[in-house]
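ugh ok fine here u go
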Amino acid sequence: MRRIIFLTLVLVLIAGRVVAQQGYVPTFEDTLMVYEGMFSTEEPLHLTLKTDLKILKKTRRDEKYLPAEMTCHVNDSFEVTHPVRIKARGVFRRDNCTYPPFWLNIRYSGIEADSMMDVNKMKMVIRCRKAAQYETYILREYLVYKIYNLVSPYSFRVRLVKLNFVDTGKEDTTTEDWAFLIEPQELLEKRLNAVAVKSDKLSIRTVNREVMDRVSLFQYMIGNGDFSVTGRHNLKIITLKDQQVPGFVPIPYDFDYTGLVNAHYAVPGETLGISSVRERYFLGPCRSKEVELEAIRDFARYRDEMIDYVMAFEYLDEKEKLDMVAYIESYFTESEDQRFYESKISSTCR
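structure:
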């Protein structure tokens, strides 16, 4: 038994280098626990990524991975380093950002964590450009994911990352920034006991009504007109194996084009007839007034929880938090108007 443990630890140390400082000697269990519960904690993950950023920018439109080295800083005396690969992803941000979001491929990294065994890659969202306002966009988009976690269990979890980017192409120049990781689809499916639906031919009428109504109101509240069931545009579609929720279940993601994030580059779709993403436009399915009002009342139950979560978030400037809260509050004030259904919902529903 001791020989098996020893050999396993040797493999971990080969694939992922463990560094101990100040006399602390990490145990085998320490290496296993580094990435356990990756998306179940609020504490930021401290990572360092070393790669050639010039090559990353040059190859952003390629489908080839770039080698990198990732170090997870567990505490002042314990860190673990792994070989990983990265590849640019996305549509607008891949073409328009200095540093596009990317896939973090950990398939051959040697990461030892039971919860990560089926995961090949994760999405990492980083600051689009160097200007300070882009750091704000990262934190605000992270909060949008967290707010939807409050509203629905059928949502992607995210993990805030304090990221050190080491540019090996510039003599290891280091920049510190905020980023976040999005829960891989494999983990989401395992957590929800679900399987992904890959058809692009579904319509908004084919997904679970209650879940879709909540998705639609959430998207309206955050000012998102950039999603569609057909084509699975910014929506993942799953079905639960136990059928506790029958039918197809939509899960929204990618929120940088929303009024709640309020990125200066975000523009609404030309067909919507609005001039700013801060203007709301309802894109949910048409329901009877009675059904829609019930969904609106149910959604209102999360009002205080959303606002409290934003205000308690310690890493965002107070002015930015107040702006997010004001935008959220404006939805709830709007939804309490007696003409809300006729003027904002039934007039544009599909």
